[in-house]
Design goal:
Radius of gyration: 18 Å
Shape: globular
Keywords: ATP-binding, Nucleotide-binding, Transport
Strand order of the largest sheet: 7-8-9-4-10-11
Pfam family, one: ABC_tran
Protein name: ABC transporter related
Strand content: 15-25%
Structural class: alpha/beta
GO molecular function: ATP binding; ATP hydrolysis activity
Order of helices and strands: EEEEHEEHEHHHEHEHEEHH
Distance between the termini: 41 Å
Bound molecules: adenosine-5'-triphosphate
Domain ABC transporter: 7-236
Largest sheet: 6 strands, mixed
Length: 253
């Protein structure tokens, strides 16, 4: 029996006027993996994620996510989760109301997923703040709420854009653990981040985008092994070699 990939794209491209944001992308992401999606600023990562989540129409090519064509937004939202760079939260709601609202959008009764949602909040240290309004939340509290909102309905595929942004070290560690647990429970995690040690630690596979093109793909160890260095190479070395610009300053925290 062949298991369908979680994400498959065929010649996926996006142009904005004379700018080619994503060019002829053929990507296959197996089910149940953590997939690190890397690339310099402006490489096309966000645009790719927007196409895969049905928010932006491709100029050419097709994509299937969790078995659904990416232009079938109605079916897609039930099967995916998205944590974008700028989390969409309603300032006037409490954290709990925000999570209930997100469940409603997917026509999932919140009571059905409350144990999972509130358990995630507790793990992230958000439990005691859930009845406060979002407009009084810190950046980290917003990020935690947006993460729970993205995964509370147990999606088949979740897209995370810089998920540890603004999180303190303890919460960031918990979030990394949660990502690994999600994948172990068969949720495919599509993770875009500039924090390469995190990718090296938790990603099963990595794709590197450069100028809208996929320039490398495989397990992190394979990418690192492809780089020649005098000492031991790491994913940052591989990234810099593959994207050909040693001046890109990348976080190494
Ligand atoms: N709505 C838009 N209109 C015009 N150009 C756009 C638009 N969205 C993205 N672009 C362009 O497409 C290219 C890819 O941008 P994108 O945001 O996908 O990159 P990224 O890899 O996510 O970058 P970063 O790491 O900085 O977030 C850039 O040249 C960007 O200026």
């Amino acid at each position: 029996m062949t298991v369908s990939p979680a994400i498959a794209t065929d010649g996926l491209s996006k142009r904005y006027g004379s700018t080619t944001a994503v060019a002829d992308l053929d990507l296959t992401v197996p089910s149940g993996v953590v997939y690190g999606f890397l690339g310099p600023n402006g490489a096309g990562k966000t645009t790719t994620m927007r196409m895969l989540t049905g928010l932006v129409e491709p100029s050419e090519g097709t994509a299937t996510v969790a078995g659904v064509p990416s232009d079938d937004r109605r079916q897609l939202v039930d099967r995916i989760g998205l944590l974008p760079e700028e989390p969409p939260l309603y300032e006037e709601l409490t954290g709990r109301e925000q999570l209930e609202f997100a469940a409603d959008l997917r026509r999932v009764p919140f009571e059905q997923i409350a144990d999972r949602a509130l358990g995630l909040c507790d793990r992230l240290g958000l439990g005691e703040d859930l009845d406060r309004r979002v407009d009084g939340y810190s950046k980290g509290m917003r990020q935690k709420t947006a993460f729970v909102q993205a995964v509370q309905h147990d999606p088949s595929v979740v897209f995370l854009d810089e998920p540890t942004s603004g999180l303190d070290p303890r919460a960031a560690k918990t979030l990394r653990e949660l990502i690994v647990e999600l994948a172990a429970d068969d949720t495919t995690v599509f993770l875009s981040t500039h924090i390469l040690p995190v990718v090296e630690e938790i990603a099963d596979r990595v794709g590197v985008l450069h100028d809208g093109r996929l320039v490398a793909e495989g397990p992190p160890g394979e990418l690192i092994g492809s780089v020649e260095t005098e000492g031991g190479a790491d994913l940052e070395d591989a990234f810099l070699a593959l994207t050909g610009d040693a001046s890109e300053a990348y976080a190494t925290e």
